[in-house]
Amino acid sequence: MKKLIDLLGKLEYECVQGSVDTEVESIIYDSRKVCEKCLFICIEGANFDGHAYAKEVAEKASVLVVSKEVEGLEDYDVTVIKVENTRYAMAFISASYFDNPAEKLKVIGVTGTKGKTTTAYLVKSILENAGYKVGLIGTIEVIIGDEHISAVNTTPESYVLQAYFAKMVEAGLEAVVMEVSSQGLMLHRSQGFVFDFGIFTNLEPDHIGPNEHESFEDYMRCKSMLFRQCKVGIVNCDDKHWEQVVQGHTCVLERFGMGEQADIRAEGLELMRRGDVLGSKFLVKGLMEFEAEIATPGRFSVYNALTAIAICRHFNVKEDAVRKALLEAKVKGRIEPVKVSDEFTLLIDYAHNAMSLESLLSTLKEYKPHRLVCLFGCGGNRSKLRRYEMGEISGKLADLTIITSDNPRFEEPQDIIEDIKLGMAKTAGKYVEICDRKEAIRYAIEHGEAGDIVVLAGKGHEDYQEIKGVKYPMDERILIAEVLAELKET
Could you give the domains of the chain? Predict the structure, then answer.
């Protein structure tokens, strides 16, 4: 049981009705879950507004938190608290409800267009190699000790986030590394506490469209919020947008990259290929100095490694622990090798926008494959521009593109493929179209040639395909295993 006045301690508010001495048993923001003596927060979403259920909720709840006037509440024995923004208020109320667990952890937040997931796992791997107990919150999953929870959002709702922090404290964890999405920042999910470290990986246009960001400027503005909510900011100073992203920052800044201005930098980058493992080695210079090697390909993997190194320096991690962790860290669906042949390499990657696909394919071309084969589709109910751009990029960089289905959602898969082909048409790239993803994977495996690098892009860690509002089980690793078994039989 919590006193309302204690939950509101860090907020500006107006008590419109009732008393702030009211006691609260639980925090609820879903009207279907309202119970006696709860505090209900009226959240405004893209397709709903909790204020519409205020009077219905008032029959049970002890407290309503609103951001606009709701008529008729005076007829109910309920305390009404008015705030400027209910999502912002929910973050602080939730933190207070769970006794501010983030203050008992070292919290590391990673933001950027790409690299968030890989960086988060790298940091976790390095710190654990050094003996720290570390939790993770990200796109793929939430990890609390031995418990793995499938993720719904990259950055969970603030109440859920605070509940995870509380479980981590209870489990005896010392630190948590989390991905911080632009949506999470925009919707105040990561408010209510201060990050010990904020990381910026890179920035290119993404998540711009209906129910996301209205413009690239808005997307960048939301990313920049992290650097007014952290103690130390660690940024990629090779990215052309980094100075705009940290404009108005309130944190101490450190820079990483491959140029002389970086506080921690990589020099002497060499690409390596051992069997189906593509990797890199380089020298770390600046605030730390040692040789490093990673079992993932290309420059962007080196940037991810530099980010992790820059963070772990603050935890006094020894160089040997860093080197060991960089070699061992694996991330599901991020340039993940899957053994299908001794003749060619097959990789699974989450690249699902123009920037990430261009970076991935450019990197893989540097390993001089016999052919670079790219299999991908695009998600439905998202910007068509992404389809045109991805089609054009694959047409330019891949020797063969296999166009297939991704998550069509409420669109027809073939309509999405036609949009991708419009981008392909700007190039001389060869392509085949196979709408069924399993059949497309079968084609890629059956037609693989010695020395090829084949990449299945877009799905990555996802184990479902979303069609007409239903998520059907579909894991590319399982599809590959099925194809190999069927080919063996025939």
Answer: 2-97 (3.40.1390.10), 101-328 (3.40.1190.10), 336-489 (3.90.190.20)
